[in-house]
Amino acid sequence: MTAELLTIEDLDLAYGSAAILHGVSLTVAPGETVGLVGESGSGKSSTVRAALRLLPPTAGVQGRVRIGGRDVFGANDAELRRIRAEEVGFIQQDPRGALNPVRRIGDSLAERLVKVHGMPRAEARRIGVELLGAVGITRPEHRLRQFPHELSGGMLQRVVIAAALTTRPRLILADEATSALDVTTQAEVLAILRDQQRERELGMLFITHDLHLAAAFCDRVLVMLRGEVVEELSGAALFTGATHPYTRSLLQAAPELEERSR
Ligand SMILES: Nc1ncnc2c1ncn2[C@@H]1O[C@H](COP(=O)(O)OP(=O)(O)OP(=O)(O)O)[C@@H](O)[C@H]1O
């Protein structure tokens, strides 16, 4: 019996004759943040989407994935819905794409609790208010009545994080979750994720193209090149311990911190 929250073993993905992933393996344990870095097109998003079985039917996938000890590829549709709803919070780059533009924030937040868990609406609303407060949103009762277009990008990404936490998942899959935010908002949103992680022992798989961020935020970092994991380093050793030529070239191309804050 494994304690890992996420285990991906020998994951292969192809679209027809185009091979996208080759033998990707990784694990995420409770309380751990694992980074996934690599240039655009290296297969980071595909790895996460394959693990959640969120790929189009044309995708040919092989390998094994367990989330919270449950077999994802062997699951039937009902089991798969339960795994996604109960075990995983999925946060993507674009918060506007993640929220229904014509629904109030409160309804989007309550949806999974009411629909999947059969929770009474008033109770779901109470949890919504509590979570919005936890992710640093002031006047949460007021925000619940607003629509996505009334909130800034940084606010909305906090709402998406709150939505990802509603069902108390143990695993967070974050795909460029803070990339669209300005530096200050990014730091605030990362601090919220870190707090929530400490409080709940969340495991996080954190996809980013930002190597400085990966080094600072992740316990371990996996480097992907053309659909393969080519190197694994601790976050602390990312900039000093890399031996693979590809990792070294990525690090050399990473903009300096002072350039980024300009
Ligand atoms: N539905 C699809 N059909 C065919 N090829 C696809 C499909 N989705 C993704 N790909 C290809 O898979 C490869 C990996 O893409 P993926 O989005 O996983 O990379 P990534 O590392 O996450 O890149 P980015 O940082 O740009 O998001 C790319 O070459 C992409 O063109």
UniProtKB/TrEMBL annotation:
Keywords: ATP-binding, Cell inner membrane, Cell membrane, Membrane, Nucleotide-binding, Translocase, Transport. It comes from the Bacteria. Its main location: membrane. InterPro entries: AAA+_ATPase, ABC_Ni/Peptide_Import, ABC_transporter-like_ATP-bd, ABC_transporter-like_CS, P-loop_NTPase. The keyword Cell membrane applies. It is a peripheral membrane protein. It is found in: Cell membrane. Pfam families: ABC_tran (PF00005). GO terms for molecular function: ATP binding. Residues 6-251 form the ABC transporter domain. Belongs to the ABC transporter superfamily. PANTHER family: ATPASE AAA-TYPE CORE DOMAIN-CONTAINING PROTEIN, OLIGOPEPTIDE TRANSPORT ATP-BINDING PROTEIN APPD. This is ABC transporter ATP-binding protein.
